[in-house]
Structures are given as C-alpha cells and as structure tokens.
From TrEMBL:
Nucleotide-binding listed as a keyword: yes
GO molecular function: ATP binding; ATP hydrolysis activity
Protein name per its UniProtKB record: AAA+ ATPase domain-containing protein
Region listing for Disordered, in residue ranges: 258-286
Length: 441
C-alpha cells in the first residue's frame, strides 16, 4: 500500500538499508524467500522516478485547480477591500496584475515589481500585507518579508542585504533578504522607503528584478522569479495631493464600471470632469488621467531621484496612493472603534458602544503627516484611555457596558469625548468627576 502511494523504494532506514536490502537481510536469518515482494520491489525501483514525476505533476495540477476554485469563491479585490479603506485605483491595478500572474499571463522569467507612491499612513504597507495574507494565509510569517531600506543608506550595507563574502564579519549570518527568500521564494517582499537606499543596493535590486535570481555572499544562487516585490516611497506625495480630487473621481468611476458594468449618473459626471481636465491639460482623451499623471508627473520625479532608466524600467506598475477623503476618514475611525470594541469584549467582557457624532470628533484628529496612524492615536487618546482608567478605578467592571458620547460642554474648539456607564441592572447614569459613571456595587 505504501508503494502504491508513492513511498520511495530506494529510501534507507536508520541502518542505511533500502527495503530490498532489508528483505535480503531478514531472509538470511529466517531462511524464507519471498519472491513476490522481491519482484515487486525490483519493479518499483526501476519505475519509481517516472512514477514519482507523474504523481507530482498530478498533485501540482490538482493544487492549481484548488487554488483557482478558491480564487473564484474569494476574489482578491474583496479580500483587499475588507482590509483597505479607499485607494481603489492601486487596489484594482494590483489585483489585476496578480490575477494575470496566477492565470499564467505574465513574464515567468521576472518577478512582479510594484512601486507604491504617496504620503505616510495612506495604506501602502497595509496593502502589501493584505496581499501577502491572501496569498500565503497561515504562512504569513514567511510569506511576507519587510525590509526597511533606510537601514541600507551606505555602501557597506550591501553585505547586510545579501550577506558578507567569506572571511568577512557576518558571513555566517547571511543576508537579510537572501536568507528569507531561501525559505519562501514566492514571498511578498516589501522594500520600505526605497528612495533612502544606497545606489549600490539599488544595483543589487536591479539584478534581482532583471534576472529573477540573486547570488548571496556565500555564492549560493537564490531563485525568486515567483516573488512579488513592492517598493514604497514618499516621493511625489505633494503632487499626488494636489491632484487628489480628480484622481479620486476617476478611480470611483472605474470602480463603478467594474462592480456594476455601468457608471452612475454622479460618477458619469465625475468622468466627464476628469476627461475635460485631460483635454484641457494634454489634449489627449484616449489616455486616462491617472496614466498621464504617472507618466508626466510621477516618472520625472522618480527619475530625478534614482537617475536610472534601467531601474525604473523593471517596475511593472507605479501606483499612487491618495490622501483620505472625509468619508474615508470616518470609515477608518469606525473600523478603529470596532477593533477596540472587539478587544474590550474579548479581554474584559465589556460592551462598548458610541454615538455617531463620536466618529466625526475623532476623525477631526487626522494629521496628513501621519495618515491613518493619527486616527489610531486619536481613538486611543480620547476613548481607550478613558475606558482603561474607568476600568482600573472599578468604575466600569469587567462584564459591564460603556457608551462613548461627545462632551458638549467643551465647545467647538476642542471637542472631547466622555463616557456613560449604566449602573448594573439598569440604564440610569450618574455623573462623576471623570464623566458619566454609574456607582459601584
């Protein structure tokens, strides 16, 4: 039965014997000869290489079919939208490129390479993480490789990137990138703040992108044609912000067309506005505003910094990330509140709710310099800290309830939040020095 399920007839046991050699060893002591088993083992030894290759090919095709069926049931766009707020343009472009790769419509000799441009905290890193999570699932720890390129600003940092040559310090440690790619050759590799890397490091990356493999300090060739490389950069962030309104309108039109097959009246008007802007600026209605913006605004900025056409030429897609709109900020805030409500329920059994205008107050804390992170800090500072203090002081007990409201007494200059905590067994609320709290029982 083991042989029928592709057990290796040439495998050796702890004593270094193959199954047929072990059979011969047993026969010497028992004096019994099993010609049927001996013949079967001899036959399997001869046919095993071809049988194993055919078996592996069947397994590979079956796995590809299972992956294809999974992708039909769980589209990549849906998985990314569940984790990313806004950024419809880069989201759809990334998903489209990944689908082509998965379906065999890509250059198999080169890895996919993306450049994500935009200000800090607009979802560049989160989109790369969401992609890795979709592709690798439980193997996320190996399937997502993050390299902070600000740590490779000097010429000698190349050795840390791919490993030191023999005789040099760090030889045994290997390179930060190459060692991880050995473990997972099809990983999603995030090269964060790539504009800060030394030119010699970029030369190594060019070899990586161009040949789909890299030689580490030990002389070992690491294959990475199946990897997906995502470079992030803050370059062109101000230019992106200046064109954000029209670019967002165009992305919205494209999303409507993809999800419904038609554009709504509002989005049709947006498309006309974007098209009129195209014609006014470039007299070219055939190329989308976003494509023109990349070619005529972003690419010159990238070239001015990197000064290497061959490096930029190996990038499959340059994608820009827009500053968040007001609606997107409210959605980010709501998600962050829901995340903390889940934590409160799981960790302390506390039910956490809030008034709708709490979302507006917290969204006002958005700082474009820090992006979505500023919303997270605002929620922690104005809401989580209050609940934590109330819990520590036993004003809200584990298993209790807490409701967040806007403090109307502070005026419009510095709007704050406060808590309402019902007494056990009812909804009566009593004020205390820290807000509205029920008395302890």
């Amino acid at each position: 039965m083991l042989l029928d399920h592709m057990a290796d007839p040439l495998a050796r046991n702890s004593h270094g014997l193959t199954p047929r050699e072990y059979l011969y060893y047993v026969e010497r002591f028992t004096g019994e000869h099993n010609l049927e088993i001996d013949g079967l083992l001899r036959s399997k030894e001869k046919s095993y290489p071809a049988d194993k290759a055919a078996h592996d090919e069947r397994q590979r095709k079956a796995q590809l079919q299972r992956e294809k069926e999974y992708r039909k049931k769980h589209p990549l766009e849906d998985a990314l939208k569940a984790k990313i707020v806004g950024q419809l343009g880069p989201l759809h472009a990334l998903a489209s490129a990944i689908r082509r790769k998965q379906n065999g419509w890509h250059d198999e000799d080169h890895p996919l390479v993306f450049m994500f441009c935009g200000s800090s905290g607009v979802g560049k890193t989160e989109l790369a993480k969401a992609l890795a999570s979709y592709l690798h699932g439980k193997q996320m720890d190996k399937g997502f490789i993050r390299i902070d390129m600000s740590e490779f600003q000097h010429k000698h940092d190349v050795s840390r990137f791919i490993g030191s040559p023999p005789g040099y310090v760090g030889y045994d440690e290997g390179g930060q990138l190459t060692e991880k790619l050995k473990e997972c050759p099809n990983a999603v590799v995030l090269l964060d703040e790539v504009e800060k890397a030394h030119p010699d490091v970029l030369t190594i990356m060019l070899q990586l992108f161009d040949e789909g493999r890299i030689t580490d300090g030990k002389g070992t060739t690491v294959e990475c044609k199946d990897a997906i490389f995502v470079m992030t950069s803050n370059l062109a962030q101000h230019e992106i912000a200046d064109e954000a309104e029209l670019l967002r309108l165009e992305a919205s039109v494209s999303n409507d067309a993809q999800t419904t097959g038609t554009a709504t009246a509002a989005s049709s008007g947006a498309h006309e506005a974007a098209t009129d802007h195209n014609k006014d600026q470039h007299d070219d209605g055939e190329i989308s505003l976003s494509r023109q913006f990349i070619e005529r605004t972003i690419y010159p900025i990238l070239y001015e910094h990197f000064k290497r056409d061959e490096f930029l030429g190996r990038i499959n897609e340059v994608l820009f990330f827009l500053p968040f709109s007001e609606d997107e900020l409210r959605e980010i805030t709501s998600r962050e509140l829901r995340r903390w409500a889940d934590k409160a329920r799981v960790r302390h059994g506390i039910t956490m709710t809030w008034d709708p205008d709490v979302v507006d107050v917290l969204a006002e804390g958005y700082n474009i310099r820090y992006g979505a992170r500023s919303i997270k800090y605002e929620v922690e500072r104005k809401v989580v800290n209050l609940i934590a203090k109330a819990n520590e002081n036993d004003e809200v007990m584990d298993g209790g309830r807490v409701h967040v409201i806007v403090d109307k007494t502070t005026g419009n200059k510095r709007r704050l939040c406060k808590l309402e905590i019902p007494e056990r067994g009812g909804d009566d609320r009593k004020p205390t020095s820290a807000g509205w709290f029920g008395s302890k029982k």
